[in-house]
Write a structure and sequence with these properties.
The protein has 6 helices and 6 strands, in the order ααβααββββαβα. It is α+β, with helices and mostly antiparallel strands.
């Protein structure tokens, strides 16, 4: 708790009961969570908290290095407590997100893309496909492709996963 207090003070961020509750929701998670899910969980404890408050708090946590924003999947902004550089597998049918360890050599990627005059501090790759469960459930078109029009809108048909 002292480390958290120090981190908040270091960033001139007041530790309120709502922010502490949001921290408890996100800290130590092994899965990925959306701001919508955080909001649904926090409003059970603090019914007057707004979605905007949750978003601003999560954005501040991201700037402090407590969590990482990993992008928008479907219509949900997703976050990860694993702040080490790594990549993600994303199931385009059910919305499941899985960590993929960092096997890509940043220097090789930069050379291959011939990126000049741009200082890269982070590379994050999202590999989209089908998880094992969805892969079994999907009928592929002739030729084995899974077309864009066949995807759900990234987890719309899925159970709440975040």
């Amino acid at each position: 708790m002292n480390n958290l207090n120090n981190k908040f003070k270091e960033h001139n961020f007041k530790l309120t009961p709502q922010r502490l509750a949001i921290y408890k929701i996100v800290s130590g998670r092994k899965d990925h969570i959306s701001s919508n899910s955080i909001y649904e969980k926090i409003k059970k404890q603090y019914p007057s908290v707004t979605f905007d408050t949750v978003n601003r708090t999560i954005n501040s946590f991201s700037k402090m290095g407590i969590i990482s924003s990993i992008g928008t999947f479907g219509k949900k902004r997703m976050y990860d407590t694993n702040t080490a550089e790594h990549h993600h597998l994303f199931c385009g049918r059910c919305g499941k997100i899985v960590d993929l360890d960092n096997r890509l050599d940043k220097n090789i990627m930069i050379k291959n893309f011939q990126i000049k005059d741009f200082k890269i501090y982070k590379i994050q790759v999202v590999v989209e496909g089908l998880c094992a469960t969805c892969g079994k459930a999907v009928k592929f078109k002739k030729g084995g492709s899974y077309g864009q029009h066949e995807r759900s809108s990234a987890g719309v048909n899925a159970k709440n996963r975040g």
